[in-house]
Amino acid sequence: MENGLIHLYWGDGKGKTTAAMGMTLRALAAGKRVVIVQFLKGSESGEIPLLQKLGATILRGKPGQKFVFQMNEEEKTETRRQQQELLLSALREPADFLVLDEACAALQLQMVDEDTLRRAVLEKPREQELVLTGRTPAPWMFEAADYCTEMHCVRHPYEKGIAARRGVEY
């Protein structure tokens, strides 16, 4: 078996999750067992039902639709518990290809245990391909990444008042 590598898509630009989902399609087409954790995402985005139909295991969700900065301590505690359970569930699933979408934000916002996340990345099965996404990765994520791609926003329609569109941004 080949060694699996670690991919990091990060930055303030659009396309981090999109890149991860494109790689997911390739992995599924190659017959790989795919597990995706989407941290801190409550609303279903357009690709999720199709990826599930194609055989991907999707672990996602959070209580309510608030951003972490809008939550009270009780809501943060429940969100933290749920996000940690998503990660632990993913680690119990056999996966040739593991996506930890918004792992950077989950860690930065202290919504997932750093030791557990670090072990998931640094002690992954040798042949497993692993993808991390998010705005601001921890230094150890940079060190671990074999591929490191920064998505930088130069222009975005939101600046002109254009809202996110189904089938494009979600």
Choose one word for the global shape.
globular
Largest sheet: spatial strand order: 3-2-4-5-1-6
Give the count of helical stretches.
6
- Which regions contain 5 or more consecutive residues with pLDDT less than 50? none
Helix content: 25-40%
Number of strands: 6
**Rg, nearest Å:** 16 Å
Largest sheet entry: 6 strands, parallel
In percent terms, what proportion of residues is strand? 15-25%
Describe this entry's structure for a reader.
By secondary structure, this protein is an alpha/beta fold. It is 36% helix and 17% strand. It has helices at 16-29, 47-53, 73-92, 103-108, 114-122, 139-144, and strands at 6-10, 34-38, 57-60, 97-101, 129-134, 147-150. The protein has a six-stranded parallel β-sheet, sandwiched between helices. Helix 2 links the parallel strand 2 (34-38) and strand 3. The chain is globular and about 45 Å long.
Fold topology:
Blueprint lengths: L5 E5 L5 H14 L4 E5 L8 H7 L3 E4 L12 H20 L4 E5 L1 H6 L5 H9 L6 E6 L4 H6 L2 E4 L20
Parallel strand pairs: 1-5, 1-6, 2-3, 2-4, 4-5
Brief digest:
This protein has 170 residues and is α/β, with parallel strands linked by helices. It is built from six helices and six strands.
